[in-house]
């Protein structure tokens, strides 16, 4: 079973690099987790007050034994992941535990799964802190993808694929441009879009309770003036 490859799907990302998605559901049934506390990103980012920010995405190497489980099949050949794929059911636990061993103690660093965020009050302190971060990565033989690093920025949009709880221009624009929903599917799509900001908007649950009720299976969808007013208020 360990060497049975899984088919995969390749697609082009915005960075003009190929991302590979492998279906590990069959393998995940046989993996035993070692639960490790993964903190909520809201608590993690609460440490950031001001200063320059740097974020990078690291990859954890797989052991030789586990690497034999990483074999997958393309249309022409067999391949094998050398790094731990995030789609393993154990990946979140292992990434968080590993990253906290490497960078869990410096007060100017946040680690979340495979992402790193370093923050400082001024450029001088930030460069000194980055030297500490890079030295730790070198000591533990961890690598960072330069294309996914943002160094000496006033703010960053995200920590890899995890939201950093900041307004993002593209998300804001998409929400403001969306038209009134014509059915439950449209409404559910809108509520999914604004879910990104759920921890940033006070009383969001109360604000969207009326709209959420309309998505229920047993509730009719008579879109009325009160719903439209609520919809526009939530968008704003």
Automatic annotation (TrEMBL):
Which N-terminal residues, if any, form the signal peptide?
Answer: none
Coiled-coil region list: none
Stated name of the protein: Gag/polymerase/env Polyprotein
């Amino acid at each position: 079973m360990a060497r049975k490859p899984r088919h995969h799907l390749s697609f082009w990302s915005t960075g003009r690099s190929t991302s590979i998605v492998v279906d590990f559901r069959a393998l995940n049934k046989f993996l035993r987790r070692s639960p490790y506390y993964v903190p909520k990103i809201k608590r993690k980012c609460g440490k950031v007050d001001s200063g320059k920010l740097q974020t990078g995405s690291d990859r954890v190497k797989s052991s030789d034994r586990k690497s034999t489980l990483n074999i997958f099949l393309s249309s022409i050949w067999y391949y094998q992941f050398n790094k731990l794929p995030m789609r393993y059911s154990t990946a979140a636990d292992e990434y968080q535990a590993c990253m906290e061993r490497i960078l869990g103690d410096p007060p100017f660093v946040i680690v979340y799964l495979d992402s790193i965020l370093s923050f400082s009050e001024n450029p001088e302190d930030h460069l000194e802190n980055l030297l500490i971060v890079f030295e730790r990565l070198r000591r533990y033989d961890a690598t960072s993808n330069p294309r996914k690093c943002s160094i000496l920025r006033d703010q960053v949009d995200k920590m890899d694929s995890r939201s950093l709880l900041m307004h993002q221009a593209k998300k804001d624009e998409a929400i403001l441009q969306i038209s009134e929903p014509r059915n439950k599917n449209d409404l559910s799509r809108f509520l999914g879009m604004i879910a990104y900001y759920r921890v940033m908007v006070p009383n969001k649950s109360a604000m969207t309770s009326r709209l959420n009720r309309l998505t229920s299976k047993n509730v009719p969808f008579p879109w009325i003036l009160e719903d439209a007013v609520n919809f526009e208020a939530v968008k704003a």
